[in-house]
């Protein structure tokens, strides 16, 4: 592909050179009116020189002379205007060779700067960025190994992680953590690499002692407001069956990064699972989520997680309504009890 593009650029250079040099080979077109044009131009310059030489304050005789000169100059100008335009002459050879040289420089620059863009044109933005990042990896790795500094290790790890080179990313992030273990990005990304490598081995019993989960959880504790911390924490929790905690983390991720769509499928799946396994979740999703948010964090209505309501107060408001909140008198028995238990559990 590169060879074809280089050949096309060479043909473009040859064609451009021929076009630029064409005027050098063309015969100059004769101007039949050249003698008369030159005579009139010389007469015009002579009359203008005489007019400029006249003093500002003129005697009557000199005023008559000025009037005569101005009349003759006007006639000469009209005669020049009446002549047809002179044929375009050839550009000097220096200009043409300069244009050819400029064309060659531009084509050369294009060969080094635009060809890579053409080669990546068939990729989507994510694939293109991954390819560009992968090209930078050897230099970043060499610099990190030479300097041994945390910023260089993190830069190498980030580039490797984004390019899908997870072995390199793990090496770089581990090097950064040896120098300072409080690096949220290194912790969570190294944790998710370890977790995916051990896919299928995670279970609720092993979670408290699992190194991968501990790395991710520590990163979320160090940087709770970084979207990626909540995203990876949610994915990790879901692998251990902690669906409610995972849903809370992923919904917080979406709050921190409203344009991020990475967690949408997981959130949908977790909500469906929770609604099936928890009757309180099913009742809440059907009656309350549209106003108070999917996890009770608030929306049109206030947050139920920070409401501080007692069981009796919450039950009474649910059945009879309050302010702008409508009443739900049809919620009775097990459904109402499950809903109240769920919301009070959130408040704890």
From TrEMBL:
The chain crosses the membrane at residues 95-115. PANTHER family: CYTOCHROME C-553-LIKE (PTHR37823), MENAQUINOL-CYTOCHROME C REDUCTASE CYTOCHROME B_C SUBUNIT (PTHR37823:SF4). Pfam families: Cytochrome_CBB3, TPR_16. This is Cytochrome c family protein. GO terms for molecular function: electron transfer activity; heme binding; metal ion binding. It comes from Deinococcus ruber. Keywords: Electron transport, Heme, Iron, Membrane, Metal-binding, Transmembrane, Transmembrane helix, Transport. PROSITE patterns: CYTC. It comes from the Bacteria. Residues 275-348 form the Cytochrome c domain.
């Amino acid at each position: 592909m590169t060879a074809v593009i280089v050949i096309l650029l060479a043909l473009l250079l040859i064609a451009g050179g021929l076009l630029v040099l064409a005027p050098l080979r063309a015969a100059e077109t004769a101007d039949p009116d050249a003698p008369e044009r030159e005579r009139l131009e010389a007469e015009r310059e002579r009359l203008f020189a005489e007019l400029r030489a006249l003093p500002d304050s003129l005697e009557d005789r000199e005023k008559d002379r000025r009037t005569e000169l101005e009349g003759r100059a006007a006639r000469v100008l009209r005669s020049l205007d009446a002549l047809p335009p002179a044929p375009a002459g050839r550009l000097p050879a220096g200009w043409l060779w300069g244009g050819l040289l400029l064309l060659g420089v531009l084509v050369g620059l294009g060969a080094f700067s635009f060809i890579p863009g053409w080669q990546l044109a068939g990729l989507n933005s994510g694939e293109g960025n991954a390819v560009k990042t992968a090209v930078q990896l050897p230099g970043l790795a060499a610099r990190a190994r030479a300097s041994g500094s945390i910023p260089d290790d993190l830069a190498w790890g980030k580039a490797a992680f984004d390019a899908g080179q997870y072995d390199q990313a793990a090496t770089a992030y581990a090097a950064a953590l040896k120098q300072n273990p409080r690096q949220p990005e290194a912790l969570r990304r190294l944790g998710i690499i370890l977790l995916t490598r051990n896919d299928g081995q995670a279970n609720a019993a092993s979670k408290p002692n699992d190194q991968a989960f501990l790395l991710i959880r520590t990163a979320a504790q160090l940087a709770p407001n970084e979207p990626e911390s909540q995203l990876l924490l949610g994915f990790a929790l879901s692998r251990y069956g902690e669906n409610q905690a995972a849903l809370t983390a992923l919904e917080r991720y979406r709050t921190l990064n409203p344009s991020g769509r990475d967690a949408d499928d997981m959130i949908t799946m977790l909500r469906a699972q929770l609604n099936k396994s928890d009757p309180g979740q099913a009742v809440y999703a059907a009656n309350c989520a549209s106003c108070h948010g999917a996890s009770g964090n608030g929306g049109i209505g206030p947050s139920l997680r920070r409401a501080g309501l007692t069981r009796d107060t919450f039950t009474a408001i649910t059945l009879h309504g309050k302010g702008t909140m409508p009443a739900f008198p049809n919620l009775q028995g097990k459904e109402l009890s499950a809903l109240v238990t769920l919301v009070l559990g959130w408040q704890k």
